[in-house]
Specification:
about 240 residues; mainly alpha; Leucine-rich Repeat Variant; about 70% helix; globular
């Protein structure tokens, strides 16, 4: 048995021992995460295992191939972002079957890959529900974590948000809303642009677009975001 095979076996056994039927039930009934292979392990516990294993690109690939929900979440904390390619992102995204794996991979791994920005636009045009969601989960994650990106990079995604806003599917529209709201929290300039787009969407005849627009307006014009933007403006002087 190879070292990597033993690591995968041990990781799965570790996860299985910490699995819980109550967590599996909550995943489906409370959080809408439906997957055929799950132990029922909380994310915090999975992160603990990730720290123990460290970064290992090849191990992450082997964990992904097991198909276990927790093993796929573990990939976000084990894979090396610098070695994650666009082709790998496409392969894994095609296998997304729930928002938990989609969002965790986008938030904790894909957004740190050199190929991250190149995937937002093409994924936003895909029909598959969780690939399309991944476009906006990735965009939201970039808005949160990519401190070097300029405002133009985010403004350039507004047509993608506008087109996807008519998608009625729950996980897509929530992803679009997430991206728009996070972009609008980066700074005052992007807030003004995001509020303007949200206003257009709120007036749309399409129910999904109206929901996204109203959701974004409620947050981006609220007192909490206004205070955050004012504080950031002061520290950037």
């Amino acid at each position: 048995m190879s070292r990597q095979t033993a690591q995968v076996r041990d990781a799965l056994a570790w996860l299985e021992r910490r699995g819980s039927a109550s967590v599996r039930e909550a995943m489906a009934t409370r959080y809408g995460i439906v997957t055929p292979k799950a132990f029922g392990v909380p994310v915090g516990t999975i992160q603990q295992l990730g720290k123990r294993l460290g970064r290992d690109h090849d191990l992450a690939a082997a964990l992904w191939e097991t198909g276990w929900y927790e093993a796929r979440l573990l990939c976000a904390y084990v894979d090396d972002p610098a070695r994650v390619t666009g082709a790998q992102m496409d392969r894994w995204a095609r296998e997304f079957d729930n928002w938990g794996v989609c969002d965790t991979l986008c938030f904790a791994l894909f957004d740190r890959s050199p190929a991250a920005w190149s995937k937002v636009a093409p994924w936003s045009r895909r029909r598959a529900e969780f690939v399309k969601r991944a476009a906006f989960a990735l965009l939201a994650s970039l808005a949160l974590h990519d401190k070097r990106a300029d405002d133009g990079a985010f403004l350039g995604t507004f047509p993608l948000i506008g087109r996807a806003a008519s998608d009625q599917r729950n996980f897509v529209k929530k992803g679009v809303s997430w991206a728009l709201r996070v972009i609008g929290r980066r700074n005052r300039g992007l807030n003004e642009a995001a509020v303007a787009l949200a206003g257009e969407l709120a007036a749309s005849p399409t129910p999904a677009a109206r929901w996204i627009g109203k959701d974004a307006l409620r947050e981006l014009t609220g007192a909490v975001v206004r205070r955050q933007l004012a504080a950031r403006a002061r520290t950037s002087r």
